[in-house]
């Protein structure tokens, strides 16, 4: 998994009743875009450090759009 600042991280709910969550990647702490990432969740603004598992997907910014 590789990401850059500004990409979105989609974390799928793992059990019934737990909804998917989307977070903006605000800092990449691994080498060459690898985890861990500091993220800010869109639903509540909570910031935390994550090492995404198989239930997560990176949504990259569209090409041609400037990265922060």
TrEMBL record:
DUF1918 domain boundaries: 1-58
Source taxon at top rank: Bacteria
Residues annotated as transmembrane: none
Residues covered by region (Disordered): 48-68
InterPro entries the record matches: DUF1918
A Pfam family that the UniProt record links to this protein: DUF1918
Protein name: DUF1918 domain-containing protein
Source species: Streptomyces bingchenggensis (strain BCW-1)
